Amino acid sequence: MEDSTRTAPLNLPKTKPIRCIVKLGGAAITCKNELEKVNEENLEIVSSQLRQAMITGSGSQKVIGMDWSKRPGKSEISCEMDNFEDQTLMDSSSFVVVHGAGSFGHFQASKSGVHKGGLHKLLVRAGFVATRISVTTLNLEIVRVLAREGIPSIGMSPFSCGWSTSERNLKSADLSMVAKAIDSGFVPVLHGDAVLDVLQGCTILSGDVIIRHLAAYLKPEYVVFLTDVLGVYDRPPSEPNAVLLREIAVNEDGSWYVVKPARQDMNKQVEITVAAHDTTGGMETKISEAAMIAKLGIDVYIVKAATSHSLRALSGEVRSSIPDDWLGTVIRFVDKRNC
Amino acid sequence: MEDSTRTAPLNLPKTKPIRCIVKLGGAAITCKNELEKVNEENLEIVSSQLRQAMITGSGSQKVIGMDWSKRPGKSEISCEMDNFEDQTLMDSSSFVVVHGAGSFGHFQASKSGVHKGGLHKLLVRAGFVATRISVTTLNLEIVRVLAREGIPSIGMSPFSCGWSTSERNLKSADLSMVAKAIDSGFVPVLHGDAVLDVLQGCTILSGDVIIRHLAAYLKPEYVVFLTDVLGVYDRPPSEPNAVLLREIAVNEDGSWYVVKPARQDMNKQVEITVAAHDTTGGMETKISEAAMIAKLGIDVYIVKAATSHSLRALSGEVRSSIPDDWLGTVIRFVDKRNC
Q1: Where residue A5 falls among pLDDT bands split at 50, 70, 90?
Q2: Of A103, A305, B150, B285, which sits with the fewest C-beta atoms within 10 Å of its C-beta?
Q3: Which residue in A has a C-alpha nearest to residue B157's C-alpha?
Q4: DSSP 3-state assignment of A90?
Q5: Among candidates B67, B123, B160 on the partner chain, residue whose Cβ is nearest the Cβ of A177
């Protein structure tokens, strides 16, 4: 990954303050074991929580659906125009949503080796097309569920927005359209995508890298990763005795250590355990990515999607101090100069 | 519309020569009288013709499908990897596809008045979201049908690509990603879209305006408009005695006149007849847009989709001289200095 400052868009318009960037983890919003299937139940709860977190006092207000598509089996589109008459435009604070691929895109990408490049090969070119179809299908589904919940969501593909890489590292990323969409009152919904690579032709740009870049430029108050487990554990959470790490501190050099629960050598143990089962970039990548965001002074919460804990994290309720009954992992920068 | 030169991207990469920009007219690829319904039969024929026109000698080759999505009712994705082994990458000449909205998007846009702007109103903001959901749904469907036909199609939304307007006139349009996609061997598929407007907040950017701008910068050899009638008539084609205009000549000042069939005052008659029934920008807008493209020295063919005539137009077969048995409308620049 190049230094983010080198990929800065030169004329990024002044954006209104961003409250939160949310990552909808692929495992949390799709069915892991079924190809190209959205976890609708989870996604609907996540959308409802996002709405509650985003729109002040939205609990008492009627939801104004923004997906006016024809429903299966119906011949007409219905949108209740009356709903709009007595509604004032609520000031929704700015959120940006980024989602992973889960059971979308992976099959197509791995079968063809899109991440390794080589667009001159028919298989890779076909896989690139197939991967983009799969991830944009998921993106559209997510945008629609959010819109039904009254969130003014706008799908934005990193490929179309001009994001590209060089030897798999982010090379250019035009944030101007993302910033303009936010300033116009929309919630951009980005996603992990197949993109062009200057040196190897093409590759896969992960949602986590996108989040980090967005965080560096949009400087949100906090970042929330919604996953399918309670947070980061000291070993695979399926193992007996796996311990949930409640708080991780990040040093200025990007290294990190476990603050809570306090235990000697916890950091080392995590690294070893994670490395053993996680070759494709799961928890360790997640901690590293999160640490790089925390280093910017932005608190990161890793929390289980569609739980009371995720609602509290999204609402910013745990920002000042972490309640004892809140389950999740906080990753924070520790400025030693202030100690 | 501002002078196109003022919206020029400053650093448009050198693109390989574009053979053809194709407009898939909304009326030709969707069912006019049924909301949000694709005309699958037409779209499949159009895709097959595009493939034949695009890929030299593709007639004898097996189609290598590039949509590897899960089919309804199946639990697995099938892609025959063997197909790729014995295939060399055929040199497909560069095409760009732009489609209209047809029965997608119009309901959402007109109900909310997205074209008139006013994003501070909840109704307009919701309509903007709903319109984008509808047109991107259509875009994804078209990309998938093209990909199934072996065309390496890549959906690119003008909104995400940074296209915006000022008082409804095109203000900025970043063509760099479109150019890069073409250079990487893909076929960009753009569409009429809801976009941001500097002065009024938002509006609708039509596929025809997109085509004109693309033509000005990509300088294709020719442009084909696929519609649901044989071409441009001297009056609404449903009227008795409506005459198909076979050839229209465009002057340097953008004015135009009918060359074939030769008839006195034909031009004037068309204008009057068209204006009477066509308030929303149908044929007259189409001729004006086409005339502006022709003025650049690029031949424009307006032809009925999914016919033998459309295949001949797409293949460039009618370029040197128009065969007598070809039905359609040619719009060409007449450089008087050469007369």
Answers
A1: very low
A2: B285
A3: A160
A4: coil
A5: B160
| Cβ pair B177:A162 closer than 8 A | yes
Query: Given CB atoms, is A62 within the 8 Å cutoff of chain B?
Result: no
The pLDDT tens digits of the residues spanning B29-71 come to: 999 888 999 999 999 999 999 999 987 655 556 788 899 988 7
- The residues pairing with B260 across neighbouring beta strands, listed in sequence order, are B247
User: What is the torsion angle, in degrees rounded to the nearest 10, for the CA atoms of residue A114, residue A118, residue A121 and residue A127?
Assistant: 10
Q: Does the annotation flag B207 for ligand binding?
A: yes
Helix ranges restricted to H, A176-279: 176-183, 207-218, 266-277
The answer, for B180 touching chain A at a CB cutoff of 8 Å, is yes
Rounded Cα distance between A90 and A98, Å, is: 23
Residue closest to B49 by CA, chosen among B339, B328, B330, B315 = B315
State residue B241's pLDDT score.
86
Report the residue from B67, B89, B133 with minimal CB separation from A147: B133
B106 annotated as belonging to a binding site for a ligand: yes
A174: chain B residues, CB-CB within 8 Å: 162, 174
Give the least confident one: A87-96, B82-91, B296-305.
Answer: B82-91
Strand partners, B232: B245
Question: In the structure encoding, which two tokens stand for residue B93, read together?
Answer: 């000449």
Residue B276 in contact with partner chain A when CB distance is under 8 A = no
pTM for the model stands at 0.91
Confirm or reject contact between B66 and chain A (CB < 8 A): yes
Residue B189 pLDDT exceeds 90:
yes
In angstroms, the Cα distances linking B95 to B19, B187, B295 are 6, 6, 20
Whether residue A299 is annotated as binding a ligand: the answer is: no
pLDDT computed for residue B272 by the predictor: 40
The label of the residue with tokens 């008045």 reads B113
Q: Which amino acid is at A105?
A: G
Query: Which residues 6+ apart lie within 8 Å of B67 measured at CB?
Result: A129, A130, A133, B144, B145, B147, B148
CB contact under 8 A, B108 and A155: no
User: What ranges do the domains of chain A cover?
Assistant: 20-55+91-228+298-321
Q: How far apart are CA A249 and CA A239, in angstroms?
A: 24
C-beta separation of B44 from B147 below 8 A: no
Contacts of B185 in chain A (CB under 8 A): 119-120, 125
CATH number for the segment(s) B20-55+91-228+298-321: 3.40.1160.10
pLDDT at B274: 42
In the chain, the amino acid numbered B338 is: N
